[in-house]
Amino acid sequence: KAGVTQTPRYLIKTRGQQVTLSCSPISGHRSVSWYQQTPGQGLQFLFEYFSETQRNKGNFPGRFSGRQFSNSRSEMNVSTLELGDSALYLCASSLARSHRLITGELFFGEGSRLTVL
Amino acid sequence: AQSVTQLGSHVSVSEGALVLLRCNYSSSVPPYLFWYVQYPNQGLQLLLKYTSAATLVKGINGFEAEFKKSETSFHLTKPSAHMSDAAEYFCAVSDRSGGGADVLTFGKGTHLIIQP
Description:
The complex is a heterodimer. Chain A contains no helices and eleven strands. By secondary structure, chain A is mainly beta. In chain A, strands 2, 4, 5, 6, 9, 10 and 11 form a seven-stranded mixed beta sheet that branches. Chain A has a four-stranded antiparallel beta sheet with strand order 1-3-8-7, with no helix packed on it. In chain A, β5 (42-50) and β6 form a beta hairpin. Chain A is globular. By secondary structure, chain B is mainly beta. Helices cover 0% and strands 54% of the residues of chain B. In chain B, the strands form two sheets. In chain B, strands 2, 4, 5, 9, 10 and 11 form a six-stranded mixed beta sheet that branches. A five-stranded antiparallel beta sheet of chain B has the order 1-3-8-7-6, with no helix packed on it. In chain B, β6 (56-58) and β7 (64-68) form a beta hairpin. At the A-B interface, β4, β5, β9 and β10 of A face β4, β5 and β10 of B.
């Protein structure tokens, strides 16, 4: 069974540009979450999607956005990049089959490492 | 609001020695608790989880953790360290009340160093 796939794995952008990261969850997983990992702040929750709906959002500015498609694949976008956006962006999927079922167990991809120059 | 505190950003043990990584949590509801491991340039891999069943949880690679409600702790242990255990370890708590979503709050992580 294929795991969570994130593309691209590495990318370099300059300040002011925008970036789109892609995530394909494990087959059958309908919940997709995004986390930002930096040395200073650690792992921070960005947002979570279930059946194309954003259910939760972390404390990030509006420059960070995301969406989920009908096949559960997800993208996140960061506009007007800042130096501080340099991070490893991790996508995770979970087996939650309905809005009432919380498993708490996330399966992570290897991440997309973004460097902003 | 929930939170996780991992004591010690770096822990160094000798190969074959006991591994003990400490985690304390704060949660307003009975928590789900997790330990994840991250190897360099990789994502997070689940080691073990506590979901209100047995308080002693066994995970992969010989790791286990014990949920102690009175101490609000969920420390990770392994009887005998192996060089391959060198990695970053994260304790996490799940917000089971968070609108039906699987949202994890992570600790800052503990870097485990294994001395030969």
